[in-house]
Amino acid sequence: MFSAELFIPALLAAVASYAIGSVSAAILVCRAMGLDDPRNAGSGNPGATNVLRVGGKLPAALTLLGDGLKGFAPVFVTSLLTSHPPTIALAAIAAFIGHLYPIFFEFKGGKGVATALGALLGVSLVTGALAILTWLAVSLTFKRSSLAALVTFALVPVYLLFDGQRVFAVAFVMIALFLFYTHRSNISRLLDGSEPTIGKR
């Protein structure tokens, strides 16, 4: 999968992508806007959904944009530098892992939905758009952000397979497994009916 001449470029892409993914948009936005640290307020998760609860729509939108861009940019730039799918897939995974376990913030990050979606858009705009439509359909129907994320990323590998993107389908199976792990408390609340609705503080 990685020949000798591709190993070093792939390693560099992974390291750079992880570093970019480690930049926490939620924490930086909340600091800039004088809001509580999202790690110490609401659900304690430094992500857009919790920032919405803590600070409202504008900081949440900025967080969503920042987290999405740090998933999209590494994948997009890597795809400009190489046409090797495993290297591009590695960049997507590394950016996502950086968000979950950021080196700049004591390895305590968010749950990764926006960053994973940004990485997916970097891989395929069509599949990314389909994922967004899936998220919107589930979230508008059930008013639960976590449920929408789980359903969406359970389906993303299937969408990629239908698009003939086997390497990326495998990568997003790995990402989906991590997402289910980071959402384990949400899954418990979904099962017992205590998961808060979108926007509830």
Description:
The model has no long low-confidence stretch (mean pLDDT 91). This protein has one domain. It has helices spanning 4-21, 25-32, 48-55, 57-81, 85-100, 113-123, 125-142, 145-162, 166-182, 184-192. Helix 4 runs antiparallel to helix 5 (85-100) and helix 8 (145-162) packs antiparallel against helix 9 (166-182). The chain is built from ten helices and no strands. It is mostly helical. The radius of gyration is 16 Å and the shape is globular. The longest helix is centred in the middle third of the chain and has 25 residues, at 57-81.
List the helices and strands and how they pair.
Elements: H1 4-21, H2 25-32, H3 48-55, H4 57-81, H5 85-100, H6 113-123, H7 125-142, H8 145-162, H9 166-182, H10 184-192
Helix pairs in contact: 1-4, 1-5, 2-4, 3-4, 4-5, 4-6, 5-6, 5-9, 6-7, 6-9, 7-8, 8-9
Q: Any idea what the shape is? A: globular
Structural class: mainly alpha
Largest β sheet strand count, sense and barrel closure? none
Considering DSSP H and I runs of 4 or more, what fraction of the residues is helical? over 70%
Query: What is Rg?
Result: 16 Å
Low-confidence stretches: none
Mean pLDDT: 91
Amino- and carboxy-terminal Cα gap: 47 Å
**Strand fraction:** under 5%
Number of extended strands = 0
Number of domains: 1
Instruction: Count helical runs.
Output: 10
SSE order, as H and E?
HHHHHHHHHH
For the structure shown, list the relevant keywords.
mainly alpha; 201 residues
Task: Give a brief rundown of this model.
The protein is mainly α and 201 residues long. Helix content is 74%, strand content 0%.
